[in-house]
Write a structure and sequence with these properties.
The chain is mainly β and 135 residues long. It has one domain: Roll (SH3 type barrels). The chain contains one helix and ten strands, in the order E-E-H-E-E-E-E-E-E-E-E. It has one helix at residues 24-34, and strands spanning 6-10, 15-17, 39-48, 54-56, 59-63, 76-82, 98-102, 109-111, 120-125, 129-130. The strands form two sheets. Strands 8-7-6-5-9-10 form a six-stranded antiparallel β-sheet, with no helix packed on it. It has a four-stranded antiparallel β-sheet with strand order 2-1-3-4, with no helix packed on it. It starts with 5 loop residues before the first strand and ends in a 5-residue tail after the last strand.
Length: 135
Amino acid sequence: MRTIKFRAWDTTDKIMHTWEQWSKEEKQENFIILNDDYYILMQYIGERDGNYKDIYEGDLIRLDETFNGADENSKIFEVVYLDEDNADEYPTFPNICTYILYNRETKDWIDFQWDDTDYMTVIGNIYEGIKNETI
């Protein structure tokens, strides 16, 4: 069974709130509170990167140099949940309600494959930028 958890970007204070910060009761209360204009919720996608770090929507992912022959400039991708609400924002993609890796600079996308996570490293997120880059 997939673990369901969220984190939330506080648009006012510019900080990330993690799921682990809340008790069970607070999680129930905060889910309702956080689902408003002041917070942006991001769901855990149910997978971890090559360093066993949880992967969430909005994460910035660096692909390993052995993955798909990507050159150095096109290896950083954003984890995006593609659904009917945002499908027009991204290139033509045959499926909706799925995760993709999207490079905003090159407009390249990769269909997210669960067995590829060993080739991925979470290096930050779209709100806080690149945090733990190791080249």
